Amino acid sequence: MSASEPQINPANVERDFVVFATNLFRDEQHDDEIDQWFLGEDCARWFEAKLLALDGISPGVSPLEEDWHGWTFGIRAHGIWFWLRIWHWISVWVVEVEAKPGPLGIFRRERTRRAKAMLCHELDSILASAPEIESREWLEAHPAELPRLVVTDPNKLHVAAGPTYETRSWGWRLFVPKQAKLRLFIASEKVPADGFPMKYSATRLPKGEMPLRVEVCQGPNGQWRIRAVYPSGLSGLDIPEGHTAWILEPDGYSATQTGLQGTEVTAPDEPVVLLRLRAKPRGADTGSAAEPCDGVMIWIAEPRQE
Which of 9, 42, 134, 186 is deepest in the core (most CB within 10 A)? Predict the structure, then answer.
């Protein structure tokens, strides 16, 4: 390696996706805009401009809207052709780096690998130097495909926790058996240390394997809510006024999350608590309160257990 070449982070070389959070780009659409056009054009053009300002990178194909709900553009970086694909996924941005070395690529493997490593390093530097960018992370797959879920029994519920990119955001990958009639429950008040709260919202879960993302977010009208997103639906629960102190003036909380150690398997008739987050009451030690308190509780159960 020459003295002028950058020091490459080996962890990023073999990974094709970088995920990050930011408010720099438009990330919401009005209802009448959904499926009419896709988010990501401003993000794609931002990356294109940043990359083309660097040595060794030349223009290829300007940003294009794609039918997979994202944007893509092409560049030539360090002698190799690349496509960069961009999605807005739930609450984060995802960029995929794909090398296209051409028909002679089999003879250019090391050259392609080196060019990709340099391009990933440059992308990482761009993100690191932008103060608006938060919590970037390189992954080996699209976050919708993570974590890797190991299904060992098609008649049981499988749960694995995924990576977390933001505060007050959690992810899982689920497998719901075909014969099960399971619902996703959400609560924000009187979360008990054990058992289940009396007040909640519930929605039916689809069958099969899917990603699930839950976040505590603030809507355009300023209303705080818990939002759960999965491929075929969106569920949510508004957090009542007077129960948001743990968000606005955080004083600590305790949380347990299912699936952090890998795939967990349970019978469909057994309730599974995905997340139990209990806010610290004023003047108490974190998690010490025996009484129900504000927070977030997410669980899966059969309708009869409502």
Answer: 186
